[in-house]
Design a protein that fits this description.
alpha+beta, about 120 residues, 4 helices, four-stranded antiparallel beta sheet, about 35% helix, about 20% strand
Length: about 120
């Protein structure tokens, strides 16, 4: 109750200095809006997807074999030993590896394991 009175008095005091009028509030006039859904608005939107063909499967397999050597496993270690496992990939011939920050966050050490051929 005391806080409410304080806020009301503060508002009135501020209104005097800002020149704001203290006219009684007029309630808004209610408006009724009718919304009618159309059948198209209710239909789910499903994108068209082309089925995979044997050629599509073959190209995915070829892509996998091309990129698989660049994928690395990442073991995250602290003084107690293993604390996490993640993945990353080699991005250049200098051996720079990209991974998500959460994979190595808080790590004291990490081991990057390349796949064997």
């Amino acid at each position: 109750m005391t806080v409410g009175l304080f806020l009301a008095a503060s508002t009135l005091a501020c209104a005097q200095f800002t020149g704001a009028a203290t006219a009684p509030a007029v309630p808004p006039t209610p408006v009724t809006v009718v919304v009618t859904a159309t059948p198209d608005a209710l239909a789910p939107v499903v994108p068209a997807v082309a089925p995979l063909t044997d050629a599509g499967d073959a190209s995915l397999v070829a892509l996998y074999h091309q990129l698989d050597p660049a994928v690395v496993a990442i073991r995250v270690l602290d003084s107690q030993g293993d604390v996490g496992l993640g993945s990353g990939f080699v991005i250049d011939t200098d051996g720079h590896i990209v991974t998500n920050a959460h994979v190595v966050q808080g790590a004291q050490k990490s081991r990057w394991i390349l796949p064997t051929a």
